[in-house]
Amino acid sequence: MSMEVDEDVMEVRDVAQGQADRNLPWVEKYRPGQLEHIVSHKEIIETLSKFISNGTLPHLLFYGPPGTGKTTAILAAVNQLYTETEKKSMTLELNASDDRGIGVVRDRIVTFAGSKSLNSFMNVEGQNAKKFKLIILDEADSMTKDAQNALRRIIEKYTENVRFCILCNYLSSIIPAIQSRCTRFRFAPLKTSLISPRVDFVAKKENVNLTESGKKALLNLSGGDMRRVLNTMQSTAMAFPSVDEQSVYKCVGQPTPAEMQTILKILLNDNFQTACKKLESEALAKGYSLSDIIAHLHDIIFQLELPSDALAQVVAGLADCEHRLAGGTSDRIQIAGLVAIFFKARSVMAKKAKNVKNVPDPLPIPIRNPRQFGSLLDWRSMHNWQGTCPGTRHENSPTDEFAPNGVRKEATQCWSRPQTAHGVLPTAHVQTPRN
């Protein structure tokens, strides 16, 4: 009878455990538990493994963008350093949800660091790696400067008993005194070639209907952040029957590549007032963040073969616009500023021509990857002469007579300041042909 009861209890526990696993975020459910299971940062992982095997773990400082494996690496190291029963007494983890003021450093951290473990009194072979405790300060960016200054002395005082592992996104947020006391490792954004197999593995385990377009969208939006990829895939799988491109972009609330192509066409072709109105309807009316649009534009413009000075002007303008948005300025005003950035770049492209013959009709912007971006320019609206001139080459016009220097003889016989959709070319740019 008791045996039957025990079996029933075990069955209930298994069902409860399975339900708990289903409710876990996939980031936690599929987090690697051992260092050898981490697929990225091989050099860092090999170095940590040697530290652990030799029992010579120094103070550590992990820094890099979110989702690149900093927390996973140190938690996997903890699993190799301590048993399940030792973890509670040998490790202390403080994250962003904990108070990071000077009081916590002086009380909680000092109390934990000052108490010695049982292993420190035992001269047992093989226990050398377990003589020290480990304090993990996750997201140390939020620590105040006073708390960091107090921590500096604690690190030195309790080195015999404790090792510190400090995790942060930005190295500049950690004072130099702490940086010099730690061995620093930078966790770079993950390559898509490393993220892709993990996405396939999780999708197979969770029976997710993941399409190729959906996988490509996940990788494009990842920015090297594994956490972001898994969270986005889990959210999309719960909200939509399949994880495809459209469902992924709807889930994250960002413009699709087709919508970004439309936005770029507007910026490259329309006049100022029309472009502002269209962008407001494309961005604000659909609820897109202007910061996301700017980030996508930054990636796209490098696929266009723009003149160097025009490209530099656009990049600098996008940086200024993003900085102003971070300060809490109006999206509507910054949309007008975004249109102005491209409008100025279009003027630069027109003014680069030395004479009327060299001002193409329309202004060509070659595309490095035409299959990806298609035709971005509307030739009729991109460049429109305000009149007819014998020196202007039109699509069906006969071949004009050229002087030896390559300038049409009739080039300056119509006007001295030709009009374009991008402004008026200065008179100095229109050269009189020499006989």
From TrEMBL:
The keyword tRNA-binding does not apply. GO terms for biological process: DNA repair; DNA-templated DNA replication. Keywords: ATP-binding, DNA replication, Nucleotide-binding, Nucleus. It is found in: Nucleus. SMART domains: AAA. One of its GO terms (cellular component) is nucleus. Pfam families: AAA (PF00004), Rep_fac_C (PF08542). The keyword RNA-binding does not apply. InterPro entries: AAA+_ATPase (IPR003593), ATPase_AAA_core (IPR003959), DNA_pol3_clamp-load_cplx_C (IPR008921), DNA_Rep/Repair_Clamp_Loader (IPR050238), P-loop_NTPase (IPR027417), Rep_factorC_C (IPR013748), RFC_lid (IPR047854). Residues 56-193 form the AAA+ ATPase domain. One of its GO terms (molecular function) is DNA binding. NCBIfam families: PRK00440.1 (NF001679). Belongs to the activator 1 small subunits family. This is Activator 1 subunit 5. It comes from Diploscapter pachys.
